[in-house]
Amino acid sequence: xxxxxxxxxxxxxxxxxxxxxxxxxxxxxxxxxxxxxxxxxxxxxxxxxxxxxxxxxxxxxxxxxxxxxxxxxxxxxxxxxxxxxxxxxxxxxxxxxxxxxxxxxxxxxxxxxxxxxxxxxxxxxxxxxxxxxxxxxxxxxxxxxx
Length: 146
Known about the structure:
- The protein folds into 2 domains: 9-43, no CATH class; 62-145, CATH 2.40.50.100.
- Helices cover 10% and strands 33% of the residues.
- It has one helix at residues 9-22, and strands at residues 26-30, 35-39, 62-65, 70-73, 89-90, 95-101, 104-109, 114-119, 126-127, 132-138.
- The strands form 3 sheets. Strands 3-10-8-5 form a 4-stranded antiparallel β-sheet, with no helix packed on it. A 4-stranded antiparallel β-sheet has the order 7-6-4-9, with no helix packed on it.
- Strand 6 and strand 7 (104-109) form a beta hairpin.
- The radius of gyration is 28 Å and the shape is elongated.
């Protein structure tokens, strides 16, 4: 019995890479019972990247969400003072709130530097996973894309 000659996908991938590196826009490869033709459209060896959207003049608010279902605490149970207030500047990893899950208290931290625009849930609220707790206005535009 005669074994058929097979072409591996990895061979085609390597061939396409070599074709690109050499600046070729079309290549045909033949075996006994098969053939493969690779062609880049319009004679280009690489697609043009799409233009980047213009940066917004105003940064969008960044949502800070609950890491687990639980009860929202805006101040530590043994202290009466709130962790943050609206309009306050926060640094990365500052504690914004706590989520009480049974006897555990999970910190909700600021992912970026910015200003606290608003608290989206009142103290004592029951939260689901991913419930919005706060909106931050990031200090730099790159952080708004998180």
